[in-house]
Design brief:
Helices cover 42% and strands 16% of the residues. It has 848 residues and is α+β, with helices and mostly antiparallel strands.
């Protein structure tokens, strides 16, 4: 622009005037002050930042005190053959540790390629990665790209807790400490150590932690068997386990897998051919196929055996190691334990198959259910109802109503009717759940008596829909019925020496102290009955009389010695042998195991040892033992219970290829049996089967336990060497009168039998129950003087007996003196008539 002289002068004045100079000085000074303040502020901010960082680092955990290894591992249950039969997983513990040499190199490189490409170069933090992430954040406004190294991620997951819920200030603090500790950690440990622990730590979706659990979940195989494509699938999950889940979001994972493979190729871990082959792998079809198998296998549902096993372990951890209950549960479900169970998979499979075979039950199947219903009423209140409230509702209309229906549709009709009744005044259903159960139910326990190890356990019929459901083998108790005659009456009676198998007790109508009549199951009374016969036919009267003699207290104490823990002092009553109180199947099996164990009780065990996560022995389980009865008593009981199976109440249980001893049991009232049992054993195994309705309804038959026991044991003994029960050296045989149990009198005692005795208890007294008399066969009365010899017989009678066994007191009234004369005349007349007939015949022949 051109200026004239006047304009130029004005411009010069503006620039050189005192005011202008002052304004420029003020402006420059202001700028200088602002710059100074900025520099001071920057310095102060830097100082404060330095002090802040210094303080955060000072507050960081000591590198020598932290533990960067992962915690929380699933526990593994092995069967008797060493096969994995269950995995116990608590929250945050679905992890199986593997060493680095078990992890494919491709999997290690896949994680490096996608998560931390300079892992093998940096000292714990990746400065280049931090700068790159910061630059991207400044240019895009989104600071989402991570710069954490594998070392930092390891520390974040295993040292810093609560990072998922931290605010921005807490996140900054944690990041600073994490970076500091990452550098410190890499001074102490190797890259391989960091990689191994990292790969065992990370969350890989589907509740899996670590690469081994993920490999089993997605591919059904050990991590060491993964191919390159499968390695890329797993490595692609870790950035976002939900979004990149290969089961629920295979398309997302496929995109991520391709990025993992591309990074591996670009970083030199794989070549083009490997890259193309891995991309072409149809891996997601295999994942879905394996997932279907996983879901159908019920892998997350523990069996009845494992449910019982975990109960035992929790108890042992508290009693043996002093754990609190909380510590015991944490150790079991998050401690990475290896549990060696006693379960025999073949025996368990046989039991499972037979229990769920409807042909083993002579009762038509019914259906019951558990029910949960929540209704929000019109006033907003929520009320809850279940199967018991449903039962109460219908019982008001039908007195004998129960929860056992002929079909699921009938049961559903009852549910629908109940729900409609509850909603008739308004309200809405906010929750409802029904689980149907087949009835009657059953339970089975099989123990190898030589070791005390439980080989199989079944807690119910039908599909098991969840872990820790009702376990009818170990978790519930039912009335034992006549199985208790062995434990509470005959075992203590024989053990006392006062009774033998030959001892007889008069089976006759009796009453309890309450006045109630004691009935035998068959409604008959046998008269004098030996202990052997009473066991064989399960005679109630003899058992009651025996317990009254030895005292109910003695019977109660003996049951305790047999390991029955559920009885109370109130159960020490005269009816004890008929099944007072209740017992679990598992305890009853262990009790009957005493007999084939020669009188020694062995505590039933479900595991042999437990190792901790590092393979150290944590617990060892050997059955505790104590003697209950003498070996001679055990053999005598076994001998009598063999008769139960061969010709008594347990004949249906006989599979005929092996010696079997056992005892039936039916509990309830005379009119309504509600529990049916068969407790039996062979020289190899002891087993108990129970059948009944869950709601204690009346059973239509008591045959099912015997049929089920027979078919289970028949399968278990196929191919086993024939064995006899071992007879102790102090058991002898002696011939006795079957009625009195004493030495038989020749010609007097009509029934003589050979019986086993503990040496020294065999009878020395002669029979005092029998007496003989000459009877007239024609009248059944005492023979008189006129009774012909042909009608006379000598017959034995039981003293004090009634009916046919009672000796008559009257003399024959048929063969009297007058009667004798008539007989002689009849005989003479007959002889004359015969002679005349013979003569006429002779004359006729002569004429001819």
């Amino acid at each position: 622009m051109n200026y004239g002289r006047k304009q130029a002068a004005r411009k010069r004045w503006n620039l050189t005037s005192r005011g202008a100079v002052m304004r420029r000085k003020v402006k420059s000074l202001t700028l200088l002050i602002i710059l100074l303040i900025f520099v001071i502020g920057l310095g102060y901010g830097g100082y404060r930042g330095y002090r802040y960082v210094e303080q955060m680092i000072a507050e960081a955990p000591d590198i020598n005190e932290i533990d960067a290894t992962p915690s929380g591992y699933m526990s593994t249950v092995l069967d008797a053959n060493g096969n994995v039969t269950a995995q116990l997983v608590g929250t945050g513990s679905n992890r199986v540790y593997v060493t680095l040499n078990e992890i494919p190199v491709d999997l290690q490189y896949a994680f490096v390629a996608i998560e931390d490409e300079r892992f093998y170069e940096h000292n714990g933090i990746d400065l280049r990665g931090i700068v790159r992430a910061a630059a991207k954040g400044l240019t895009t406004g989104h600071f989402s790209e991570g710069a954490s190294t594998i070392t930092q991620q390891l520390l974040k997951n295993n040292v810093f807790e609560g990072w998922t819920t931290e605010d921005s200030s807490q996140r900054v603090k944690r990041k600073l400490q994490e970076q500091y500790l990452a550098m410190e950690l890499e001074k102490k440990v190797s890259k391989d150590w960091i990689m191994e622990n990292y790969l065992n730590t990370i969350n890989l979706g589907q509740n899996t932690l670590g690469v081994q659990a993920a490999s089993r979940r997605y591919f059904g195989k050990d991590v060491s068997e993964l191919n390159l494509s499968e390695c890329a699938v797993i490595a692609g999950i870790t950035q976002n386990p939900s979004k990149y889940n290969p089961i629920s979001h295979p398309d997302n994972n496929a995109v991520r897998r391709e990025k993992v493979l591309k990074n591996m190729k670009n970083q030199g871990y794989i070549d083009d051919a490997q890259y193309e082959a891995a991309l072409a792998d149809n891996v997601y079809d295999r994942i879905q196929e394996n997932n279907t198998k996983w879901e159908n296998s019920g892998t997350n549902i523990t069996s009845y055996f494992v449910d019982s096993l975990t109960d035992e372990i929790i108890e042992d951890l508290q009693e043996e190691l002093g754990y609190s209950e909380a510590q015991a549960y944490k150790a079991l479900y998050s401690g990475g334990l290896t549990i060696y169970s006693t379960q025999d998979p073949k025996i368990q499979a046989v039991c499972d198959t037979q229990v769920n075979n409807d042909s083993n039950y002579d009762i038509r199947n019914k259906v019951s259910f558990s029910y949960a219903l929540s209704i929000q009423q019109t006033d907003g209140a929520v009320e809850h109802f279940n199967e018991q409230s449903l039962l109460a509702y219908y019982k008001k209309q039908y007195e004998n109503y129960n929860l056992n229906y002929s079909s699921e549709s009938d049961a559903q009709d009852a549910i629908d009717g109940y729900r409609e009744a509850l909603l008739q005044d308004g309200g809405i259903v906010v929750g409802e759940k029904v689980i149907f159960t087949v009835q009657p139910q059953a339970s089975v326990t099989i123990i190898d008596q030589s070791t005390g190890q439980v080989k199989a356990l079944v807690g119910g019929r039908g599909e098991k829909t969840a872990s820790k459901t009702l376990n009818r083998a170990s978790g519930t108790t039912r009335q034992p019925g006549s199985t208790f005659k062995i434990l509470t009456a005959y075992a203590p009676a024989l053990e006392s020496g006062k009774y033998t198998l030959a001892t007889t007790v008069l089976d006759e109508p009796i009453t309890y102290k309450s006045g109630q009549t004691v009935h035998n199951a068959d409604g008959k009374y046998r008269g004098y009955t030996s202990i052997r016969e009473a066991i064989q036919d399960s005679v109630n009267v003899v058992a009651i009389k025996t317990v009254e003699d030895i005292t109910p207290q003695t019977g109660y104490e003996m049951a305790k010695k047999f390991g029955i823990s559920t009885l109370t002092k109130d159960d020490a009553v005269e009816s004890l042998p008929l099944g007072v109180g209740s017992v679990s199947n598992l305890e009853l099996t262990a009790a009957f195991e005493v007999m084939p164990n020669q009188g020694v009780y062995k505590e039933p065990v479900l595991y042999t040892k437990i190792l901790d996560q590092d393979g150290n022995l944590l617990l060892e389980k050997k059955p505790k033992k104590h003697r209950v009865i003498k070996d001679s008593t055990a053999f005598l009981l076994t001998s009598a219970m063999e008769d139960v199976v061969e010709k008594g109440s347990g004949k249906l249980a006989d599979f005929e290829t092996m010696p079997i001893a056992g005892k039936t049991g039916t509990a309830g009232t005379t009119e309504a049996a509600r529990d049916a049992w068969f407790a039996g054993y062979t020289p190899y195994y002891t087993g108990v089967v129970w059948c009944g309705y869950d709601d204690n309804s009346e059973l239509e038959s008591n045959r099912s336990p015997k049929i089920l026991w027979r078919n289970i044991m028949k399968s278990l003994h196929e191919g086993l060497e024939y064995k006899e029960f071992k007879q102790p050296d102090d058991v002898v045989e002696s011939s006795v009168c079957q009625i009195s149990g004493k030495l038989a009198i020749k010609g007097v005692c009509p029934k003589v039998t050979t019986e086993y005795f503990e040496e020294g208890t065999e009878p020395s007294e002669k029979c005092d129950l029998h007496q003989t008399a000459v009877i007239c066969k024609d009248s059944g009365l005492l023979a008189g003087d006129y009774c012909p010899d042909s009608s006379k017989e000598t017959k034995a009678f039981v003293k004090g007996a009634s009916g046919a066994d009672k000796m008559p007191t009257e003399v024959c009234n048929v063969h009297t003196g007058e009667g004798m004369l008539d007989q002689i005349l009849d005989a003479v007349t007959s002889a004359v008539e015969q002679a005349n007939s013979d003569h006429s015949e002779h004359s006729q022949n002569h004429q001819n």
